[in-house]
Amino acid sequence: MATSIxxxxxxxxxxxxxxxxxxxxxxxxVKSVPKHVxxxxxxxxxxxxxxxxxxxxxxAPLVVVTRDIIGKKRFNQLRGKAIxxxxxxxxxxxxxxGADAKQRQGLIRLAKKNGEKLGFLA
Length: 122
Hints:
This protein is mainly α. It has a domain at 60-118. Helix content is 61%, strand content 0%. It has helices at 2-7, 17-20, 24-32, 60-70, 72-97, 101-118. α4 (60-70) packs across α5 and α5 (72-97) runs antiparallel to α6 (101-118). The longest helix is centred in the last third of the chain and has 26 residues, at 72-97.
């Protein structure tokens, strides 16, 4: 039965392996391929941590004006201190009500979202 299946199939291969890869065609193939290929580095955009509500919110204009008056470096220092104090208040609150670490992290994330919506992180 196997012979009847293969009997009708013809082959289109008319040569040996030596002539197709290692024979006379090999020299022309080597000459057509460049020796050195330069590949540029892929361009990756830098990830940006940006507030989606930037410039929006009730307190955003006040935050922007304050930042322009005192300077960006000093403003970021004050903002960092304010965020640290607020996190301490949240931590103390969680200790007083007996909340675990997961609930505390949830409250901190909620405070950040509210700060973004209100414009404190503009």
